[in-house]
Design goal:
alpha+beta; 10 strands; 9 helices
């Protein structure tokens, strides 16, 4: 089971952006640099116009392994070697602020931007760690979910495939992500959930196969298993992102079999994920990709 992220270990904004980022990474929180306007840095030269295969809308990670900060939230990393690399040096020099990927740290941020939103949160949600913002507050919970904007007037949810600006560690004890927050984002209906016993096809569509040999698919599954197995933090988020990557590459042509999916589920359960969490992550990834 993933250990709760202790964001209290990270100092305030008196340090340089890179120093803050390294402290965040050490606490298990994946950071990324922001330029003026709270925007992520654009594609690096090698990945200009998403030539590497990254998604233009930054909703799902592409196959790019470039170390430059070129895919918004997906550029966030806890690897200090990458953060200190020459490819990132210019971004940190020009950074106006630091952001982080809440889902990558096993967290969800409820971004409250209006007095109405704050009043709603204080009346409905359990108390948790609170970080003041320029317009309101970030309420940070332990747990991950799908991100969504404008779920209520003045309320955004930032967790998986999203980034939030780092404004300090805040105050208060962090609580578990409540059902009241999860209910703000429409989840896939039970009818669309994949079978935990693999009695129905889980591989997606039946389009033309793009894979040259079976070894290509087998290698992809093996790499996905390795990514899950090597996860030391944010296991929930890692499993979801890995399922998403596998489906984005192999889910559209019907090549995935029950055996392939069983391998991925087995790797996830070996890291402490329950069968239900595996099924939910797989179903959410398929829904995200429209499969």
């Amino acid at each position: 089971m993933t250990q709760p992220t202790d964001i209290r270990r990270v100092p305030g904004a008196l340090n340089s952006p890179l120093s803050i980022a390294l402290d965040l990474a050490a606490a298990g929180v994946p950071p990324l640099p922001l330029r003026a306007g709270k925007l992520p840095f654009g594609n690096c030269l090698a990945c200009a116009r998403n030539a590497c295969g990254g998604r233009p809308n930054m909703k799902t990670p592409g196959p790019c392994t470039c170390p430059a900060p070129c895919h918004g939230w997906a550029a966030a990393t806890t690897d200090p070697t990458v953060l200190r690399s020459q490819e990132w040096a210019r971004a940190w020099r020009e950074a106006a602020a630091v952001a982080y990927h809440p889902g990558g740290a096993g967290l969800t941020v409820v971004d409250l931007d209006t007095a109405e939103a704050l009043a709603w949160a204080r009346a409905i949600l359990p108390t948790t760690r609170i970080v003041p913002t320029t317009r309101g507050e970030h309420w940070i919970y332990q747990g991950v979910m799908q991100s969504a904007n404008a779920v209520r007037p003045g309320v955004d949810i930032k967790s998986l495939v999203a980034y939030a600006r780092w404004l300090g560690s805040g105050t208060g004890a962090m609580s578990a992500l409540p059902d009241a927050v999860r209910a703000l984002v429409k989840e896939p209906s039970p009818a669309r959930r994949a079978s935990q016993t693999f009695t129905v096809p889980l591989g997606g569509g039946q389009g033309e196969c793009r894979h040259r040999t079976p070894a290509y698919l087998d290698r992809g599954i093996a790499m996905a298993e390795q990514r899950i197995t090597q996860a030391r933090t944010a296991v929930h988020a890692t499993v979801y992102r890995t399922f998403l990557a596998v489906l984005s590459t192999h889910g559209g042509c019907g090549c995935l079999t029950d055996a392939h999916v069983a391998r991925l589920f087995t790797a996830a359960q070996a890291k402490g994920e329950s069968p239900r969490h595996c099924t939910d992550a797989w179903t959410n990834a398929r829904t995200r990709l429209g499969l």
